[in-house]
Amino acid sequence: MRPSPRCILLFAAGIPVALLSSVVHVGLWTVWPAYVAAALAACGIDLVFGLARRRLTARAEVPHTLFIGASAPLAVSLSVPPSSRPRLIEMLCDLDENLVPQPARTVTVPPAGEQRVEIPLVPRRRGTVALRTLWFRWTGPLGLVRRQTRRSLDREVAVVPDIQAVKDAALRFFSAREFLSGLKVERYIGDGTEFESLREYVPGLDHRAMNWKVSARHRKLYCTDFRAERNHQVVVAVDGGHLMCEPIEGIPKLDRAINAALMLGYVCVKTGDRVGWFTFNEKVRAFREPEGGMTAFRRMQRLTAELEYSTGETNFTLALTDLSVRLRRRSLVVVLTDFVDTITAELMIENLGRLARRHLVLFVTLRDPSVDRIAGARPDTVLDLHRSVVATEFQQERDLVLRRLRRLGIHCIDAPPSAVSTTLLNRYLEIKRRELF
């Protein structure tokens, strides 16, 4: 229990009362003791009729799992005895440092009722976060005495990659007929390069599919129908170096890359392709041979949950050479990584070019929206001007690296975090439709 700001003002107001009474007449000195006694009586009344700490009931519902990039509510139900009047209670949760801090909530709890409050839990990193304590604070009916109590939670919650986002995106993508191309024997005719059948020409068919040799032999016009191939091999290579551990819009780049990789892996197995997993930083961390079916996606999900944050420098020479040795069949290699400038990207460009001689490489990197905002903002001060110049130089060097990669035959994606997953899926489906690997 402690005095509230109103109580402090009440006693501070007694000082001018005491001074004024002594100046007016010396016999009015009793006004000051009477004022103090009245103030103490008011504090006593506020203390007696205030809500006792043991009469506040709090029940918390903690989520079992948190997903990176998404929020989940910590539901707290508050109740007071029926004889109490409505209480205005301030609540604050002591959260782990890897959770986004939340402000204090003020809630009115009715008598003989229950008030539910939801505190959003927004994780910053994967791993395990702790929910420690709930703090409650309220005042008496006069607002003079403040009471404070705590309820221990002592709960640990696992933070894992966001699978729900993968499922939602999959529902949107697979609702379209064209994304199921290549899954069944009765494939949608017209896409792909694998021979399906011959049929006699009718108006409306594509003239480019005309089979002139067969037409000359039968003296009729025939067209060739193609179907999309399946059982392609896709390898997702995720860089876990220190650059990928830096946050972008509050979430580490590594976690955003994992979400995009899981979404791509889910679509790959649904379209009949085989997907593999490769992680690296200063050394090779994990490798999984490409395989098909939902079993491959579940194994990929477990491997992403085990991927730790690292402070080591990424060794592209060791990692990409090791990956090239392991892959015996031409594959689509999706590399999710990051770089700073042209100097630090030299070894990366050299090794990606060597890998692109045997495989189709799709290079994916996350573009920081804050750099674009600083580069495009109108400078008001000299410091703003310097920041804009530096940000523009970073953009130019980044574009230079991407142009060099494209000249080596590497497909490149440089997208903001909000669009990287969708852009990656669209590019994969375009590559698959064009039968580039």
Query: According to CATH, what is the topology of the largest domain?
Result: Rossmann fold
Which percent range describes the beta-strand content? 25-35%
Structural class: alpha/beta
Number of strands: 19
For this structure, what is the CATH class of the largest domain?
Answer: Alpha Beta
General form: elongated
Helix content: 25-40%
What is the correct CATH architecture of the largest domain? Answer: 3-Layer(aba) Sandwich
What is the number of domains?
A: 4
Compute the separation of the termini in Å. Answer: 72 Å
Computed Rg: 33 Å
The number of helical runs is 12
Superfamily at the CATH H level of the largest domain? von Willebrand factor, type A domain
Largest sheet entry: 6 strands, mixed
Could you please describe the fold and organization of this structure?
There is one protein chain. The protein has 437 residues and is an alpha/beta fold. It has four domains: 2-48; 53-160, Immunoglobulin-like (Sandwich), CATH 2.60.40; 163-182 and 230-433, Rossmann fold (3-Layer(aba) Sandwich), CATH 3.40.50.410; 194-227, no CATH class. It is built from twelve helices and 19 strands. The protein has helices at residues 5-12, 14-24, 31-48, 163-174, 212-218, 253-270, 294-306, 316-326, 346-355, 369-376, 382-407, 420-433; strands spanning 2-3, 57-61, 65-67, 72-79, 87-95, 105-109, 114-121, 127-139, 145-160, 194-200, 222-227, 233-239, 247-248, 251-252, 274-280, 284-291, 332-336, 360-366, 411-415. Strands 1, 3, 5, 6, 8 and 9 form a six-stranded mixed β-sheet that branches. The chain has a six-stranded mixed β-sheet with strand order 16-15-12-17-18-19, with helices on both faces. Helix 4 (163-174) packs across helix 6, helix 6 (253-270) runs antiparallel to helix 7 (294-306) and helix 8 runs parallel beside helix 9. The longest helix has 26 residues, at 382-407. Mean pLDDT is 83; it is low at 178-190.
